[in-house]
Amino acid sequence: MKQIALTGIKPTGQPHIGNYLGMIKPALELAHDYQALYFIADYHALTTVKNKKELEDLTYQVTATWLALGLNPDDVIFYRQSDIPEVFELSWVLACFTAKGLLNRAHAYKTIVDDNVEAGREEDKGINAGLYTYPVLMAADILLFGTHVVPVGLDQQQHLEITRDVALTFNKNYREVLVVPEAVIRKEVMTITGLDGRKMSKSYNNVIPLFAPSNQVRKQVMRIVTDSKRPEEPKDPDECNVFAIYRHFADVDTVAAKRQLYLDGGLAYGDMKNELNELLETTFSAQREQYNVLMENSDELDKVLERGAEKARDIAVPILAKVRKAVGVTGNR
Ligand code: TRP
Fold first, then answer.
1. Is the dihedral angle over the CA atoms 99, 101, 102, 106 positive or is it negative?
2. pLDDT(333) > 60
3. Which of 109, 131, 244, 322 is the most exposed place for a label (fewest CB within 10 A)?
4. Which of 152, 155, 162 to mutate to test the pocket of ligand 1 (most atoms within 8 A of CB)?
5. To which H or E segment does residue 136 belong?
6. Each residue of 86-118: pLDDT tens digit?
7. DSSP structural state of residue 226
8. Using CA positions, which residue lies closest to atom 3 of ligand 1?
9. Degrees to nearest 5, angle at CA 100 with 97 and 106
10. Which of 260, 263, 258 has its CA nearest to residue 242?
11. Separation of CA 328 and ligand 1 centre (Å)
12. pLDDT, tens digit, for every residue of 2-25?
């Protein structure tokens, strides 16, 4: 039996090339060696996305993106979190084994508290209890499936530590019921540079979307911030935001030659941007077409996710039964 790799994808924004390099691509590679369970964390998104249409659209966009990029739903168990009622039952059980202090210290929550305090507002202003208990739901996502490894970005490391802590606390009280998972963090691809040189992130508005129409992608590429060095001047490629993205998509030899051109002088940023744009176009145009077809067929997307949920529940139901039995809520001994 293959070990289980599981990860959640929060549908809170249109997928961009930072998501692709930092998460989607490595996750699809990992799926060769593990039984992968990848799911749309729509109930996690509900902590922030409060518009029905927006949550539905984002869920379809994320689903279509992963399928277009090659996720094979016959190999990967691909589902929607909200289709698995067992997650929410386990979430309650785990909440009873989660130290409240651990949640107080969770970064996502604490950052908002700190901002509030700094701005002279009441500590918990604007914070709903879902945001606060977010790590517990995430622990349930993971522990419900006997997950061995969880591929995530560095920003999720603390959540994984909380998950492990909760699982160990639970196991200590009963017996070894839950599998204690390991985080797989790929530091090297974590920070994909955005248009302005900061980490590519929706919240910085510095992303290149994966499947937006070509002219929009082009517009974003042209917005990449560069210095004002003239073409003939030698440049440091490692200081250039265009190169930082380009090097992930061009082949090794081309990247090496380009690096030399930067160092020698003779490279115009405008040409480099055009080249990057073309490279992105050739890399993603077939998948973009596929994406557009899928987006026209949301019934098909629903079907894929529902079939995935059935398979996921086959794994989840017996594990939840074990948990219920361990804590003593079922009649059978
Ligand atoms: N919190 C994760 C994020 O924001 C999404 C997520 C939800 C997740 N449940 C998960 C990731 C379980 C890994 C495992 O990206």
1. positive
2. no
3. 322
4. 152
5. helix 129-143
6. 999 999 999 999 999 999 999 989 999 999 999
7. -
8. 10
9. 110
10. 258
11. 29
12. 999 999 999 999 999 999 988 899
